[in-house]
Amino acid sequence: MATSAQYAEWIVKNAAKKGTPEFDIVAKAYADSRSAEPASVQEAPSQATPEPQSPAPQTADWKDLAVATPSARLLAGAVSPVVGAAQLGVNVGDWVTEKMGGKPVAGQWVADQIKRYEESKQRGMDALAGQPGQTDIAGALGTVASGAGMVSRIPAAGSWAMRVAQGGAVGAGMGAVTPSVTPNQTGKNMLIGGALGGGVPAAAPLVGSNAK
């Protein structure tokens, strides 16, 4: 006599026969065998679960290609501190709104627009290069050049401790005006920027002494 597992296997393989006398006989035998077996060995028939399919990648359109050109990315990188400063202002406004009992919405909207731009740029870069995972070097150069232009106007501090403090403050400020795809990313950007900005002048004497 077949076991319930064997009946279950037959039922799964012959699902197309459902409604036929043969299928009904096996189904009844399966039910009878299940009731006669201990609960520990009962096994219900199950259909194979299809593997989850990855979403198909989106095809780049002309707008994606336009924002992905090196000149467009260089310009976007140069103005990114201005965009980040505007986003910071919106996030502060949302914080005040929340403290007053209101519902903050502007910060999320701005973050969503930045995210849409980043996704569009990435699709365009990948399409232009013919392979995914491209890095926006032109945009990074634009941001560095813009930031260096602003920092160069700040008088250098005299002592080592003041240079470390100044570097940390400048780094945190640059982190604060870095555009982000989530409204609550600003604090993390400030911590990273402050650590990098203060770390460079802090390590400079060590590097200089080892070079001698």
What would your notes on this structure say?
The chain is mostly helical and 212 residues long. The chain folds into two domains: 4-41, no CATH class; 69-202. It has eight helices and no strands. The chain has helices spanning 4-13, 21-36, 62-67, 70-99, 106-129, 137-151, 160-176, 186-211. α4 (70-99) runs antiparallel to α5 (106-129). The chain is elongated, with a radius of gyration of 31 Å. The model has no long low-confidence stretch (mean pLDDT 81).
Properties at a glance:
68% helix, mainly alpha, 8 helices, elongated, 2 domains, 212 residues
Total tally of structural domains: 2
Strand content: under 5%
- Identify low-pLDDT runs: none
- What's the helix count? 8
Topology (elements, then pairings):
Blueprint: H1 4-13, H2 21-36, H3 62-67, H4 70-99, H5 106-129, H6 137-151, H7 160-176, H8 186-211
Helix pairs in contact: 1-2, 4-5, 4-6, 7-8
Task: Briefly characterize the structure.
The protein has 212 residues and is an all-alpha fold. It contains eight helices and no strands.
